[in-house]
Amino acid sequence: MPDDSLTNSKVVAAYRERTRRSERLAAEAIDILPSGIAHDARYVKPYGIYVERAKGPRKWDVDGNEYVDYFGGHGALLLGHNNPKVVAAMHETLDRGTHFGSNHVGEVRWGEVVRRLIPSAERVRFTSSGTEATLMAVRLARAFTGKTKLVRFLTNFHGWHDHMTAGHASHFDGSATAGVIAEIAAHTILLPPGDTAAMRAALAGDDDIAAVILEPTGASNFGESCRRFALQHRCQDRSHSSNDGGGPRSE
Ligand SMILES: Cc1ncc(COP(=O)(O)O)c(C=O)c1O
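# pyridoxal-5'-phosphate complex -> structure
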């Protein structure tokens, strides 16, 4: 976002010097978008660059600077920018139409691929964002178990809906983030990340837990330890976890 704080930094001065057009766009954006940005990950001081085009591992901003892109579309672009096969497939798809409002063979085929890649996924529901996916997952867990509470881990990110906000970047005491109803926050049990003992104690001490959610791939910066934690818990619980999940609610 645009920032008019005074600084003697030579790095910031050089950045400003080389990104004049980005600075002008950032000044315009501040009146239009909250904080002048369209995603929190772009909150950069004094302001972020505005990118014009990208190819493979590189991108270019509106001032003509070239960058090696380590961000990769928030991690989504495993094949880099504008991979020719991906672009050809997108063009071919777009030429056939953009929104049919009907079933499509692609959803069946893509669902099969997801199931093959994630063997535990019995059926697949596509959503537009991870935020929707975790919202649905928690609702489903509550409906299935008839229980209400959710265990989460501090600093793990699961999107920004009301059930997932406290404890990710702030509100580590579990209190409600501004705008979230206190009762919703109170139904979340926040634990230290990667702490198997704390999780086991929480599960043993409360009969009203519908789900435990964590980042097994570690998008929030502690990947490997989180993965080990998930595997460790799965192995430890294999012998006695099959019937302590509550079962379907009878209505
Ligand atoms: C582990 C995890 N869950 C959920 C989300 C939320 O996804 P989205 O930004 O698509 O709402 C993210 C986003 O980074 C994530 O890393």
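# post-check
The first strand starts at residue 51 and ends at 55.
Residues 130-145 form the longest helix (16 residues).
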